[in-house]
Amino acid sequence: MAAPIEDYALVGDMQSAALIGRDGSVDWMCLPRFDSSAFFTALLGDRNNGRWSIRPENGEPRAVRRRYRADTLILETEWDAPEGTVRLIDFMPPRHKAPDIVRIVEGVSGTVPMTTEMVIRFDYGRVVPWMRRQNGDIAGVAGPDSVWLRSPVQLRGHNFSHGADFEVRAGERVPFVLTWHPSWEEPPEAVDPELALRETEEYWTEWASHCTYAGEWRDAVVRSLITLKALTYEPTGGIVAAPTASLPEDLGGERNWDYRYCWLRDATITLEALLRTGYTEEADEWREWLVRAVAGSPDDMQIMYTVLGERRIPEWTADFLSGYENSRPVRIGNGAAGQLQLDVYGEVMDALYLARQAGLSAAEHVWAIQRTLLTYLEKIWDEPDDGLWEIRGTRRHFVHSKVMAWSAFDRGIRMIEDFGRKGPLGRWRKVRNRIHAEVCEQGFDPKRNTFTQFYGSSGLDAALLMIPEVGFLPYDDPRVVGTIEAVRKELTVEGFVLRYDPNADGGVDGLRGEEGAFLACSFWMADALSRIGRGDDALEQFERLLSLRNDVGLLSEEYDPRYNRLVGNMPQAFSHVPLIRTALNLSGFDGARRGTGVTPPEDPHRRG
Predict the structure, then answer these.
(1) Is 187 in the same domain as 264?
(2) Residues 239, 290: contact at Cβ < 8 Å?
(3) Is 544 helix (H, G, I), strand (E, B) or coil?
(4) CB-based contacts of 41: which residues, under 8 Å, 6+ apart?
(5) Whether residues 233 and 367 fall in one domain
(6) CA dist., res. 406 & res. 410, Å (int)
(7) What is the three-state SS of 110-176?
(8) Given this model, what pLDDT does residue 556 score?
């Protein structure tokens, strides 16, 4: 059985990643890309679906101490065994020719008996490879995949797995290096584990030193930035939402999704977080991935793409896996890629406007893409859609979607007004004003003084907190204040904010069960409270959220107050990016901000 989600730490090489539990077990790893098939899949099944464990032979299997080494992605796990203390050092060196995971067992005191077991299963735990020994190394191959394990410890084969018992003395270091490569190629040269450790530490330490934020929450911000960098596919600049698939939003339920792809909805907040903390190069690479991904016919634009910008992301069910804590179905791929989500047009236009505003290079072809997107959005903005949360029920006129359509035209107008671009200014202003009037008329409940989830809805949506953030209305508008208060009252559980009530309006999302509090929404609430003069409440909210991070500073997608546990895919970019943003905002830290300089048009419906 897999460990609690909060027990996992991340190592990665900016092309793929692995999750390692407090028990020293690698329970999830996909190579050579984030979205490649896993060959350690115990996270979604059991030991027989693949894992790699290293731990003391005696005593408690859960480590007593764990940390990342300073500002790096090098994980250190320590056990106090009856015979002494031992440390396990895990990392993935920044990739050269092939991906490696390096594990070094270091004796701290005494002489500690250790045990290791490796169960390799390609294709999400389904394919047992052919294993052989060559020149003292262990090699496994099946279809397109091949792995090599190199170590001075001689592992023995037994029952379709390999294992060994060994001892480590104080001051001694015992390395293991696992390398993947295409099965039809010659194996790459062996990695020197100690040299790789030094180079990996130098890389991350140098990268983290460029962070320009030095405020009260610097440690949390830097850890979140390192996590964001680790979720970046370096060859293209694309950033995956999470390195995992099908970790449940509802333990034992069906709300299980594959997040190993790049969502357009993350574009602006990610770009803002990188720009405001000094990572202009990464911001530019993310912007360039975005432009390449959305290039083409606007009616083909998707809400998500692969790290390469590929469009086909078929969803299928891995029925041979039992699921994390029996949460089924186990979904691989994501069918939401084919949904209509109007908000992504606003996210793309907002991100490109912010990039231009922050001084990133301009290109005529980028503006041509923006114009084409707005021309298409003129035709479809008044259609119902699937919404920000990828509803799998009936399409609705979601208020957040309309607000972001408004934002798309607003940013197009600003590109003309602020940067001299050529475009149909008058026509776009009319569309912008029409959307604004319609949302204020049909998406607002005057009796409750709040905007609603969709036109005619009785339910709320935490995404409504974005209404003032994108400049649709100012924070001091009574309708905005009323909406913030309503969301806080009706969607907050033990201080944490739900995305929406899945049971409202007869069940809006078409799924069974409940879900936890969405952490990004809780960070949005902290921002909103600070902007309406509730600074103490905002700070309390933020500190409460920081307390949810696991022992190495990572956050998943959601927190379930019913079980006091992190749930959903882990670690989640859409949790760490708003953490960065909220820390900067509460610190009064300057830099490129979403909606900066944007004011809404004259609104005849405004009160007060």
Answers:
(1) no
(2) no
(3) helix
(4) 27, 28, 49, 50, 121, 124, 125, 321
(5) yes
(6) 6
(7) EEEEEEEEEECCHHHHCECCEEEEECCEEEEEECCEEEEEECCCCCEEECCEEEEEEEEEECCEEEE
(8) 98
Q: How far is CA 291 from CA 144, 228, 334, in A?
A: 32, 20, 22
Q: Within this chain, do residues 292 and 171 fall inside the same structural domain, yes or no?
A: no
388 plus 507 within the same structural domain: yes
8 A C-beta contact, residue 24 and residue 63: yes
604 occurs within a structural domain: no
Q: Are 265 and 337 in contact (CB under 8 A)?
A: no
Identity at 180, one-letter amino acid code: W
Q: Does 193 share its domain with 286? A: no
Strands 173-182 and 245-248 come out as unpaired
CATH number at residue 56: 2.70.98
Query: How much is the pTM?
Result: 0.95
Residue type present at position 96: H
- The tens digit of pLDDT for each residue in 213-254 reads 999 999 999 999 999 999 999 999 999 999 999 999 999 999
Same domain? 246 vs 139: no
- Residue 603 maps to a domain: no
State the residue range of the domain holding 326: 218-587
Helices (H), 548-605: 573-587
Distance CA 174, CA 105 (A): 5
**For a pLDDT cut of 90, what percent of the chain falls above it?**
86
Please give the distance of CA 154 from its chain centroid, rounded to a whole number.
Answer: 38
- Residue partners of 100: CB distance under 8 A and separation at least 6: 13, 92, 93, 177, 178, 179, 180, 191, 196
Reading the block at residue 21, the tokens are: 């539990």
Residues in the chain: 608
Question: Which tokens is 271 given?
Answer: 């770009």
d(CA 227, CA 10): 8
* Mean pLDDT, residues 451-472: 96
Q: In 3D, which of 426, 387, 371, 433 has the Cα closest to residue 406? A: 433
- The residue with tokens 């003129």 is 378
**Residue 348, domain CATH:** 1.50.10.10
Q: Which of 174, 208, 242 is the last residue of a domain?
A: 208
- Mapped onto helix, strand or coil, the DSSP state of residue 4 is coil
Cα separation of 4 and 565, whole Å?
8
Residue 591: per-residue pLDDT:
56
How does residue 141 score in pLDDT terms, banded at 50, 70 and 90? very high
Name which of 564, 557, 574, 501 is nearest 247 in CA terms.
557
* Nearest partner of 208 among 273, 278, 275, 266, judged by Cα: 278
CA pair distance 98, 189, nearest whole angstrom: 9
Q: Which two tokens stand for residue 485?
A: 């208060």
User: Could you give the angle at which helices 425-442 and 364-380 cross, rounded to 10 degrees?
Assistant: 40
